[in-house]
Amino acid sequence: MATQAVPAPNDLPVALSDVHTAAERIMGSVVRTPTLHSKTLSDLTGADVWLKFENLQFTAAYKERGALNTLLQLDDAARAKGVIAASAGNHAQGLAYHGHRLGIPVTIVMPKPTPTVKVMQTEGHKASVILEGESFDEAYAHARKLEASNGYTFVHPFDDPRIIAGQGTVALEMLADAPQIDTLVVPIGGGGLISGMATVAKAAGHPIEVIGVQAELFPSMYNLVKGEHEPIGGDTLAEGIAVRDPGSITSRIVEALVDDILLVTERSLEESVSLILQIEKTVVEGAGASGLAALMTAPERFRGKTVGIILTGGNIDTRLLANVLLRDLARSGRLARLRIRLQDRPGALYQVARIFQEQTVNILELSHQRIFTNLPAKGLSLDVECETRDRAHLERLNAALQAEGYEVRLIELA
C-alpha cells in the first residue's frame, strides 16, 4: 500500500485537477459543510480530532457530491432519457434529489426487502423506484438490463471517475478549513470516497496519512489490498459501507494511495454512534461513525496526530438509533437488568424494593417467573430493569443485595 513519501502515480484515472473541477461544478448546489474541532473527542482519544459534518447535506450524506458531479456532465440526449442506479441508500437519495432539481428523470432499482422508509424517502425526491430481487446483486443486474433496453445512463455508486472526483471535494474543504490535518480516517465501502480524498491528500503540501475503515463483517477492500481472506457478510450497523465487491477503479487508487485499512467491530460502531450524539449533539448512521470507531479501537495508532474524521451520513432508522442508545446505556451500567432469586412468600418483593430505594436506584420494570424456571416450587426468579448513575453505582447495588443474602445475576449484553 501507499506510503507518505511516494507521490501519486500519474496514470490513475482521477487527478487533483479533476477534483478541483468538480468542486467548481457543484459549488452552490451542495452544502459546504463545516469542519469543526472536537475538544472532547480529542481529550478522549489522545488525538487532535477534527470532524467534517457531511450529515448536514440536504439528503444527510456526502453522496450528493459525486451524484451531482456526474449528472452535470451528461449531454442533452442522456439527460432527456434519464439515469438509473441500483441503491437502497444514500446514493439513491442524492441522485434522486439532484436529478429532480435538474429535470433529469431518475430510476432507482432497490431489492425487495428494502425498508419502506428508504423507498418513501427516495420517491419523495420524485424518483421512480423499482423493487426487484432479494439482494443488491439482483437489483444491480436488473438496473443494468433496464439501462440497455431503455437507453438510460447508469450512475455507479462508487466505481466511476466522476463519482470519485465529486467525493474528493470533501477533502478539499476539510484541508482548506483545517490545513494542519496530518491524518485522514475515511470509511470504505466500494471505495469512492476514500479514492477521491486520497487523491487530494497525497497532492497536499505536507505528508498526510490516509487510513481506511471497514466494518469487521465486510472487509472486502481490506482483503483485496492485504491479500487476506476474512469472511464477508452479516447484519452490520454500518450498512452504508457493507459492500461485498469493491470497484476495479477504486481498488487501483486505494492500493496506490491509501496507507492502511483498519477493521472495526459492531460494538465499537454502536458506541461511536452514541458518543457522537452525546458529545457533538448530532446524529450519524453506522458508517458515519466508523472513523471515530477506528480511533476508539486503536488509540495508540492516532495518539498525538491531527486527525480528520468524516461524519459521512445521518440516515439511520429512528428505532434502530433508539436501540443503539439504550444498548450503550446498558453497557455503561446506567441501565441494567438484574435476575434475583427470591422465595415465594409475602413481603419478598417489598424487601428487594427496599434495597433499591436505599441505594437510590430507579426501578423501570419488574418481571416474575414462577413456572418456566428450574428453581424449586417455592422459589421464583425476579427480573428487575433499573436505572443507575454509572457502573460503580450498579456495583454498589449488587453488593447491597448480596449482603442481604440474595443471589443476583447481571444480564449482560453481547
TrEMBL record:
Q: Which UniProt keywords apply?
A: Lyase, Pyridoxal phosphate
Cite the EC number.
4.3.1.19
Single Gene Ontology BP term?
A: L-threonine catabolic process
Q: Where is the ACT domain?
A: 337-414
Name a Pfam family for this protein: PALP
Reactions catalysed according to its record: L-serine = pyruvate + NH4(+)
> At the top level of its lineage, which domain of life is listed?
Bacteria
Under the heading SUPFAM superfamilies, the entry gives: Tryptophan synthase beta subunit-like PLP-dependent enzymes
* Cofactor field: pyridoxal 5'-phosphate
Q: What GO molecular functions are on record for this protein?
A: L-serine ammonia-lyase activity; threonine deaminase activity
Family membership, please give it. Belongs to the serine/threonine dehydratase family.
The protein, known as: Threonine ammonia-lyase
What's the source species for this entry?
Answer: Sphingomonas tagetis
